[in-house]
Target: D-aminoacyl-tRNA deacylase
Amino acid sequence: MKALLQRVRRASVEVEGQCVGKIEQGLLVFLGLEKEDGEEALAKLISRILAYRVFADEQGRMNKSVADIAGGVLLVSQFTLAADTKKGLRPGFSTAAEPARARQLYEFALADLSNKHPVVASGEFGADMQISLLNDGPVTFLLEA
Model:
């Protein structure tokens, strides 16, 4: 599994012209799920995301987490993160979790995140989504589990 974290000043997700999720300062998290992924590893990744220090402290150093700043987390499922891009000119998706399993894991991740953090929003699994964001930095990290 892969989680692409972007530190944002704000971010939102629209589906068919309707806003389905938005946050102010915090993390936009794109989650790519693979065939071998499970709930235990996903729960650990969610805890790591919440504790990952990407926000500045009083000295300007990245020493604070999204939990420390009481920021929002916008979770968006993105199966293209699970693509195999090692060769060729077209991504392969044989490593991505099957849609039914990916939906189950995404819903688990969203529930786990909501239980651990007070400000959570989400995209819509499997939908054609339009993401708007104001990247802060830019600061972007790829976490793999």
User: Anything to note?
Assistant: The CA atoms of residues 105 and 142 lie 19 Å apart. The longest helix spans residues 99-116. DSSP finds two helices and eight strands in the chain. The chain has a mean pLDDT of 97.
